[in-house]
Amino acid sequence: MSKYWSNLVRRLQPYTPGEQPRRSDITKLNTNENPFAPSPSVMAAIQAQLTDDLRLYPPPEADQLKNTIADYFSLRPEQVFLGNGSDEVLAHVFNGLLRKDLPLLFPDITYSFYPVFCQLYDIQFEKIPLTSDLCIDVKDYHRGNGAIIFPNPNAPTGDLLALDAIKALLQSNVDSVVVIDEAYIDFGGVSAVSLINDYPNLLVVQTMSKSRSLAGMRIGYALGSSELIEGLDRVKNSFNSYPLGHLQIAAGIAAFEDKAYFQQTCNQVIQSRTSLTGSLEEIGFEVLPSKGNFVFVRHQHYEAAIVAKKLRDKGIFVRHFDQERIREFLRISVGTEDQHQQLLDTLKNLINQHLMK
User: What pLDDT, on the 0 to 100 scale, is given for residue 8?
Assistant: First the structure.
C-alpha cells in the first residue's frame, strides 16, 4: 500500500472482471460477450463519423441517441439517462439514489460489482440469500430497506423473475428505489420498462454490450421516472458532462434502428443456449435454467475449479467463482457453434481419459 493513498483507497477491494487473455488462439467463453458481430449498420455509422469533427466535443446530453432510445421504449427523453457502459450508469445510481439511512438489499449471489460500489460510496447493505435452488424470492425483500437492486436475469445464475413478481416487489416497496439491472433481458425475458410509468420508484438499467454486440463501445443507459433521471443527471453533471463520444452516439443510434438484426442475433443466442444446455447435460452436467447469454453448470463427479483449470490448459476459458454456495459451478458464455464444439470435445476427452483429477 502506498503512503500516498487515501484511507478510502486503502479499504477498497476492487471488482475483478473475467480474465481478458491477449492470446488469439483461445476459445473465450468467460466474459459473456456476444458471439455475433455488431450490425453492419453500426459499422457504417462509425465509419461515417471518422472525420475531422472528432476534434469537437460531442453533444453533452447525446440528445439524438436519447431520443432514439426513448422512442424505442415509448418513453420521453427526460426518462432516459446515458453513460459509458452500464457499470458507469450503476456507479451514478449507487451514488445518487441508493445512499440511504437504511440498508440497500441485493442477493447474496449476484453481480459482484454491487458490494464494490457500496464500499466506494459508503453504503450499508444487506445480502438476501437466494433460495435453495438459487432463485430470487421477492417475499424475502418485504422488509425495511433504503433501496433494492438485482439483475434480471440474475447473474451468474441466469434465473429470471417474471413481471408479476417485479410488480409485487414494487407494490410492497413504494418508498424505496427498486433498480432492475437488465443486462441480459433480451435473451429470453420481458423487460420491466413497461412498468415505469406506473411505478415512479422503478429504475431499469440496460447495456448495449450484450444483446447489441457493443461491449467495445461502452454504452449503458437507465430508464425511469423523470424524477429519478433528474437525480442521476445532477450526479453525472457534477462528474463528467460529456459521457458519450461521437462514435458511441452514432453506434448506439444505428444499433437501435436495426431492429431486424438485433432480433435475429438474440434468437440465435437463445437457440445456441438451448443446444449447449442439451449437449452439456448429455455428458453429465447439471445446467440451471438460464435466460442469459450464458449457462451455469456443475458436474457431480468433478470439482469446478479443476474443470476450469483443465479447460484453461487447453486454451478454453470459462468463469469460476470461488464463492460460498457456488464454488461447484462454472459459468459458460454462449459462443459460436465452433466454440461449443471445441468445449464439448475437450470436456468429453478429459472425462473419457479420467483427466479431471
Answer: 87
Could you give the residue range(s) of every CATH 3.90.1150.10 domain in the chain? Answer: 18-37+260-352
Question: Is 219 in contact with 208 (CB distance < 8 Å)?
Answer: yes
Q: Would you place residue 94 in the very low, low, confident or very high pLDDT band (cuts 50, 70, 90)?
A: very high
Which cell goes with 354? Answer: 479420467
Please list, in sequence order, all residues whose beta carbon lies within 8 angstroms of the beta carbon of residue 171, skipping any fewer than 6 positions away: none
- Does the predicted model carry a pTM greater than 0.90? yes
Confidence of residue 17 (pLDDT cuts 50, 70, 90): confident
Which pLDDT tens digit goes with each residue over 104-161?
999 999 999 999 999 999 999 999 999 999 999 999 999 999 999 999 999 999 999 9
Indicate where the chain has its CATH 3.40.640.10 domain(s): 40-257
Q: Are 204 and 180 in contact (CB under 8 A)?
A: yes
75 grid coordinates: 418513453
Tell me the average pLDDT across 47-58.
Answer: 97
CATH of 40-257, one of 3.40.190.290, 3.40.50.300, 3.40.640.10, 2.40.30.170: 3.40.640.10
Average pLDDT, the chain: 96
CATH of 18-37+260-352, one of 3.40.50.150, 3.40.50.620, 3.40.630.10, 3.90.1150.10: 3.90.1150.10
- 19-31: string of b/e by CB count within 10 Å (b at 16+)? eeeeeeebbbbbb
How far is it, in rounded angstroms, from Cα 293 to Cα 111? 15
Please list, in sequence order, all residues whose beta carbon lies within 8 angstroms of the beta carbon of residue 305, skipping any fewer than 6 positions away: 320, 322, 327
Q: Residue 94 gets which letter from DSSP?
A: H
Angstrom distance (rounded) from CA 180 to CA 151: 6
Non-local (6+) Cβ contacts of 227 within 8 A are 200
